[in-house]
Amino acid sequence: MSTPKLPDLGRVHFIGLGGAGMSAVARVMIGQGVSVSGSDSRDSPGLRALEALGADVFVGQDAANVHNADTVVISTAIRPDNPELAAAHSLGLRVIHRSVALAAAMGTQDVVAVAGTHGKTTTTAMVTVLLREAGLDPSFAIGGDVAALGVNAAHGSGNVFVAEADESDGSFLNYLPRITVITNVEADHLDHYGTEEAVFASFDRFVRLLPADGLLVACADDPGAADVVQRSGAARVRTYGYSENADIRITDTRPVASGSVSLLRFSLDGLECEQELRLLVPGAHNIRNAAAAFTVGLGLGVDPARAAAGLSVFSGAARRFEAKGAVRGVRVFDDYAHHPTELVAALEAARTVAGEHRVHVLFQPHLFSRTLAFAGEFAAALELADSATVLDIYAAREDPVDGVTSELISSRVHRPGGYAPDAARAVQDICRRAEEGDIILTVGAGDVTRFGPVLVQELARTGGSAEPEPAASSGSASGSPSAGDSRG
């Protein structure tokens, strides 16, 4: 689909405005003076925040909501029988995908597009924080709120636009980046692509969107990303990672105590001089994400020391190992991991934070198709926990599939917990199991996030008072490398 110019869109209405991706585009457009309206099936703080910025907001979806619009923005999740979409078609309104709307909002800015099966959100957030701290004031659109930014999107005064490029439906092919970041490439979203080969082919097409003088930044540790680089033919490539052949190589990772939080210090070589970075977020995957952001900063002319200083203030993105609270020494975190590789990274990070104590995971599979494709891999990942409780599958956009249940995963896991059709009972069991120093991790892309506060409350009810959430979502952490574990 060709990209329209932003002024040509007129009044823009978003169906599903409360979603992370849609709200990000809306924020950027409002920042550029576009008249925005939108609806969602339920009210939310995100909707009210957009209303405060000047958007016309509707709770509930009705054909009448689009009557004042010139352009209607949808995502892949919007079904054809949606009343607002049907009305838009009957009225002859312009209907565009969210990615096309974001491309229009990018205009002529230099686009940094961050793509990968895992790691997009965190890496995009790190790049944005780094550039902001360096004084570039970029525009940005991220698939989650970022504490250091306060929001998930904004229109900045600078000439750089940092965007999370979503590959799930192929819509990242609507962008024209100046810098492309590939964190990793694995089979996922097979409900859309069908085969692993189709996933890789889509990333190949995405990389070929770079202009001749564009920069490709890719993870040298990930076989999928490395293969994309080899096939790309890109003239300017900068790789990063633990690998000896990486242009920006991670070395000498170690935890450093600092007040009430723990920092993770590591060094990067491949530069004229070695540069030390400090991170407030745990895990080898986050070290890789930071190395990617650092490499982008260098590509945009940011001084290495200033880039390192910018990354040192990054304290995490929403639902990426996010601290929810602590009671009687038991800490509760929440993570968005919904692919086996992401689940491994989340649990490895939890292990570094827990130290000699135990890790208990409450996992909610996301999508029937993903559960069927990766049940064995999910089960193997959950073996990294000391107890693993598996909730019912979060269907999202899919209809149920006969024979596909969470028991495809739980039946293969040899840890206490198992399949839990009763979520309230599962919360009680996990809290009884947890002891001082242990970590409880809620994991998944669905509504499992709501159980973080519930777990904190149950821990308090059964034996202690809630403690304040830590200043950063990290504990003592080490950065042992594990190929391909960068994630969002």
Can you lay out the helices and strands and say which pair or pack?
Elements: E1 12-15, H1 20-31, E2 36-40, H2 45-52, E3 56-59, E4 71-74, H3 83-90, E5 94-97, H4 98-106, E6 110-115, H5 120-133, E7 139-141, E8 153-154, E9 160-164, E10 179-182, H6 190-193, H7 196-207, E11 215-219, H8 223-232, E12 237-241, E13 248-258, E14 261-269, E15 275-279, H9 284-299, H10 304-311, E16 322-327, E17 330-335, H11 340-354, E18 359-363, H12 368-382, E19 387-390, H13 407-410, E20 417-419, H14 423-433, E21 439-443, H15 451-461, E22 466-467
Parallel strand pairs: 1-2, 1-4, 2-3, 4-5, 6-9, 6-10, 7-9, 10-11, 11-12, 12-13, 17-21, 18-19, 18-21, 19-20
Antiparallel strand pairs: 7-8, 13-14, 14-15, 16-17, 16-22
Describe the structure.
The protein is of the alpha/beta class. It folds into three domains: 9-96, NAD(P)-binding Rossmann-like Domain (Rossmann fold, 3-Layer(aba) Sandwich), CATH 3.40.50; 108-311, 3-Layer(aba) Sandwich (UDP-N-acetylmuramoyl-L-alanine:D-glutamate ligase), CATH 3.40.1190.10; 322-467, Protein-Tyrosine Phosphatase, Chain A, CATH 3.90.190.20. Helices cover 32% and strands 22% of the residues. It is built from 15 helices and 22 strands. It has a ten-stranded mixed β-sheet with strand order 8-7-9-6-10-11-12-13-14-15, with helices on both faces. Strands 20-19-18-21-17-16-22 form a seven-stranded mixed β-sheet, sandwiched between helices. Strands 3-2-1-4-5 form a five-stranded parallel β-sheet, sandwiched between helices. Strand 13 and strand 14 form a beta hairpin. The model is unreliable at 258-262 and 468-488 (pLDDT under 50).
